[in-house]
Specification:
239 residues, alpha/beta, Rossmann fold, six-stranded mixed beta sheet, four-stranded antiparallel beta sheet, 26% strand
């Protein structure tokens, strides 16, 4: 039984079919990435799993139980948490307040305090700036805060929507090494990313989405070396 299983998922926006019967699995402990061009349906997929977008067909299962149709709070309670595109930090609250909001469904005060310290270990920059308003942080720091806030919910599956978008190459490298570290500490990661090269390098498995359909799948390594993937998404930088 897979940790997360998507079967024949379809989503319509008005008359437009954003997802066309896509199927894929995420096993416990993996990093799985969905890659594809803008408008391929990557964000829609994560929003459907999160309960933010209603599916018009298909099934989403978590630990063998159907979760399609549950509201987003119930999805978070089950341990599936989304780091949204564009970070969406609460800009007029401090770093520490943003982290606490991530734990809003939890009652265990000692555990929350422990996890805040864990976030500070993972992201030393956040510790230095714990009092600072989130809106005044750099883009990279806001991304770290968005990831830290999501981790405060103690997710089983951390879903990340374009975590490297708009960040300087050096910061992108940091973000990807953090994703790897989070995974090594036991969190399963489902990642969508336009930086296909960076994503496939850390992914156990990947799926290529083209206009709402899964066209290719394989291990990160296999897809990195696939000629059609190189031509479409990696340019010559893969060599």
């Amino acid at each position: 039984m897979s940790l997360l299983e998507i079967e024949n998922l379809s989503v319509h926006y008005g008359g437009i079919e954003a997802l066309k019967n896509i199927s894929f699995k995420v096993e416990a402990g993996e990093i799985v990435t969905l890659i594809g061009a803008n408008g391929a349906g990557k964000s829609t997929t994560l929003k459907s799993i999160s309960g933010l977008v209603s599916a018009s067909g298909g099934t989403i299962r978590h630990n063998g139980e159907t979760i399609s149709g549950l509201d987003s709070q119930k999805i978070v309670e089950r341990g599936i948490v989304l780091v949204p595109e564009g970070r969406k930090v609460f800009s007029n609250l401090s770093v520490l307040e943003n982290l606490k909001i991530g734990a809003y469904l939890r009652q265990d005060k000692p555990g929350i305090a422990e996890d805040i310290e864990r976030m500070y270990d993972l992201f030393p920059r956040l510790k230095e700036r714990h009092w600072q308003m989130a809106g005044t942080l750099s883009g990279g720091e806001q991304q770290m805060l968005a990831v830290g806030r999501a981790l405060m919910a103690r997710p089983q599956i951390l879903m990340m929507d374009e975590p490297s978008l708009g960040l300087a190459p050096l910061i992108v490298r940091d973000i990807f090494s953090i994703i790897r570290k989070i995974n090594e500490q036991g969190t399963t990661v489902l990642l969508i990313e336009q930086n296909a090269n960076a994503a496939l390098k850390i992914a156990d498995r990947g799926y290529v989405l083209v206009t709402g359909e899964v066209k290719l799948s394989g291990t990160g390594k296999v897809l990195l070396n696939d000629k059609s993937v190189q031509d479409a998404y990696l340019g010559t930088s893969a060599h």
